[in-house]
């Protein structure tokens, strides 16, 4: 048996063990939440079983999940961010799980059970996309592995800590408001990053982006040969080149940054790419062509830890029939993303990020804190 086949089988077995271990814990938590809702909100518990087997819950269509997940996989693998946020848009708005959770008073356990389910469902999709994107960008020479590892080391503690502290304690309304607020902040920050004053500090990133774009336009077939090349590595300084341009960073900084990014991402139930992108472009000074792959590597480790924390420690679960269809869509989108992103200019990639940040931020911040969205769909 080939080594790759062995690793695949072991990975599938590990996932199976996780699922089996968490089902019993979730069954107890869900049963208690359903029993409480049957007693205190019987009018909401009428009809056939739907989402998570809850009586009267919404019945979700697998094909809609498949199509939306293709978009989620493409956007995350293209800009290195917004996979979890777009997954959240799908679960909260497109599938109606946000309104369904809010239909139960926030004092009821079922409100928080559904909210935690949304959070961990988002992370399953992002984790899958991050794994595929990391592999594809590494082969393309567009992943800074030492930087990704440093961020991942810091993310381990953060992605375990927050689920342990907040699972079962955050209502859907509060979750939406904080979700939107942080995304809006990052949209404003990256808008500033596009100004001439901010761009003056990023000559290396601009030079590398121009060299990469020129090679793509010239039709160079072996772009990976000019990709990331590690020059030196110590505990306080790492130097690498990308298309002949030299970059350097202190590995200790992304370790600390990875902790805080993973903690916040785990709280929001997303991958953290929308925080990693500003970190990688501003603190590390990378061009966008290196950001997606490096972000994906860091996100992958955080997602594995956060999913395990939600499901094993707190008994959260997902609708497996929907997740299965969505993971297929994620695979499709994540394969397409790295192949198309090299044809999109560096500035356009940043503008895509900014536009999505403002739209998603305004929508969820207004819906969470005021009760209704200021932008469509209302």
Give a structural overview.
- The protein is mainly alpha-helical.
- It has one domain.
- The chain is 71% helix and 4% strand.
- The chain is built from 14 helices and three strands.
- Strands 1-2-3 form a three-stranded antiparallel β-sheet.
- Helix 2 (62-79) packs across helix 12, helix 5 (109-139) runs parallel beside helix 13 (320-341) and helix 6 (145-166) packs parallel to helix 10.
- The longest helix is centred in the N-terminal third of the chain and has 38 residues, at 3-40.
- The protein starts with a helix and ends in an 8-residue tail after the last helix.
- Residues 2-9 have low confidence and may be disordered.
How many domains would you count in the coordinates?
A: 1
Strand content: under 5%
Helix content: over 70%
Largest sheet: 3 strands, antiparallel
Q: What's the pLDDT, averaged over the residues?
A: 82
N-to-C series of helices and strands = HHHHHHHHHEEEHHHHH
The parts where pLDDT drops under 50 for at least 5 residues are 2-9
Overall morphology = elongated
Rg from alpha-carbon coordinates = 21 Å
- Report the structural category: mainly alpha
- Counting DSSP E segments of at least 2 residues, the number of strands comes to 3
**Order of strands, widest sheet:** 1-2-3
Number of helices: 14
Distance between the termini: 54 Å
